Amino acid sequence: MTAILEVNNLVKKFGNFVAVDGISFKMEEGTITGLLGPNGAGKTTTIQMILDIISPTSGEIKIFGKPMHRHRDEILSKMNFSSPYVHLPNTLKVWENLYTFARLYGVKDIKGKIGELSKQFDLEELLPKMTSQLSSGQLTRLNMAKAMLNEPKLLLLDEPTASLDPDIADRTRMIFKKLQKENGISILYTSHNMEEVEEICDRVIFIQRGKVKDEGTPDELIKKYGHKDLNDVFLTIAREKV
């Protein structure tokens, strides 16, 4: 399969602190790949570099086979990102937020696309509400709808179901799997819910102390570490001494 994302010897330093320490990995096109690790492992910094929010100290990122630093605009037009920790303008109504981002992304049929995504993410009754009135779970669904406006080929999801109740979280995972199967979308997925990761991820990459500690399919890693599930694998890696 073709690598949609390649990270080569990526390093990020903040002064004397090394947040990401020479990590390398590939993500195959059309897969859901989990980027896992304890808090402070370097996941967020890695995602921010992939999104070109911050620049690497050294190393290279290729997306769609092209270096990010040379083809930034082209690459970002085919990507998107969603996180319940990123806030949309509270002074806009839900539909106004979606409309504004749709214009920024150059969506042609804005009304049709908003209608489609509102139905998909159960936002239809929320469209006329002020964004400031939404619950954390509703905001998460709005963020995900926003991320799908430009029909991205690569979607980065940071704890996408963290604020959702079990029913909506399950429906959301079904949407991700449907997008992967029917649209061929590639998803880089961070989560601390290992049961969820086992369910939807084709492959996982464990980061610890800014380095890639291990990677493979969930089943491969569970077998390798001799555990019953991925949660125990996570605990083993997170608690490993330097």
TrEMBL record:
InterPro entries: AAA+_ATPase, ABC_transporter-like_ATP-bd, ABC_transporter-like_CS, ABC_transporter_ATP-binding, P-loop_NTPase. Gene3D superfamilies: P-loop containing nucleotide triphosphate hydrolases. The keyword Acyltransferase does not apply. It comes from the Bacteria. It holds the Pfam family ABC_tran. GO terms for molecular function: ATP binding; ATP hydrolysis activity. Keywords: ATP-binding, Nucleotide-binding, Transport. The keyword Transport applies. Residues 5-234 form the ABC transporter domain. Belongs to the ABC transporter superfamily. This is ABC transporter domain-containing protein. It comes from Candidatus Taylorbacteria bacterium RIFCSPHIGHO2_02_FULL_43_32b.
